[in-house]
Amino acid sequence: MYDLIEHAESLGLEVLFDDLGARHAHIREDGVVVINESRSHLLQRVALAHECGHHVHRHVHMVGARESRQEWQADEYAANLLFGPREYAQAERMYGPDVTLIARELGVPARMIHAWRRAWRANAHRVPRGFVAFG
């Protein structure tokens, strides 16, 4: 978690922990990311990486469906913080295209695998030859 806190701080964010009820995290207008202290370590990491994505993309507070463009961008940013192409390729070699098993291997929720795959598809022309990616 410390690596992600350092990353957030390098972006000019402050990270605090508090009980947020049903929410995993939120980013305040003053640049403070509040992480739900009652969530698992895994969900705290994902939430912080996701909120960093909102900050980097300069997203404004929104209300709407999870599938919104801003949420997808924040998830793609988070996925790239939480694991890299080598880790992904190794997990895929081990488990094939199975999202659940790859996610478990990488220690992230399945939505991070979907986000990483979206970002990979969007940038496939930049990927080195011979790189393995979901069949």
TrEMBL record:
It comes from the Bacteria. Residues 8-113 form the IrrE N-terminal-like domain. Pfam families: Peptidase_M78. This is ImmA/IrrE family metallo-endopeptidase. Gene3D superfamilies: 1.10.10.2910.
